[in-house]
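Cross-posting from the modeling subforum.

Setting up a comparison between two proteins and wanted a second pair of eyes on the formatting. Protein 1 (sequence, then structure tokens):
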Amino acid sequence: MRRDVFQAIADPVRRDIIGLLSHESLTVNDVAENFSISRPAISKHLKILHECGLIIINKQGRSRYCEIQPKNLIPVSDWVNQYRKLWEGKLDSFEDYLIKLQAKNKENE
């Protein structure tokens, strides 16, 4: 079953794993040490991230190293950017409103 990147980032644990791996490659055990859930649960999360192409897992001796594939997060970035423009416009309008409100309050002092 091929999963999609949005399924991968839907889970907070997987987002935290992505955050960890964004700094450095870690072994599966190193990843698991950062969470209070079972090692098999972490392995399942890593499997989903791997199936989505967000990480690769390289075997070196007895250890399996997880490495992020940031280019595969581009679809998420593109999707978020379309809404960023919408929210920036709304925030700019809100800022203009607050400036007018402050000016009006100063006039009434």
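Protein 2 (same layout):
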Amino acid sequence: MKIAVSATSNDLDGEVDQRFGRCKYFLLIDSENMDFKVIENESIMASGGAGIKAAETIVNNGAEILITGNVGPNAFQTLSAGGIRIFTGASGAIKESIDQYKNGELKETGGANVSSHSGMKR
């Protein structure tokens, strides 16, 4: 299974980025063997639509699951339309978040957990 994680760095030792649309990287991780691909988030500096563009990146790269801190309404809608299951509220180490997902400790979200444009300030 391909799991996408919003990440602060380009390796598994990094942390889950709390911002989805404006995170630095996405790690696309194979849950079976933990092999991963790094995807730079090209929408990080977008003047608008960052969540939608980031969501399209996740969908277009074949992810089935997204683990992140927060997701806004536009990104949520785009991800959901693409068949991505979304798990918010993750924090800390990426490896630990993957383990939490595998152990059923992360809850799938039924909607956005932040408002539009919440990741713009940092």
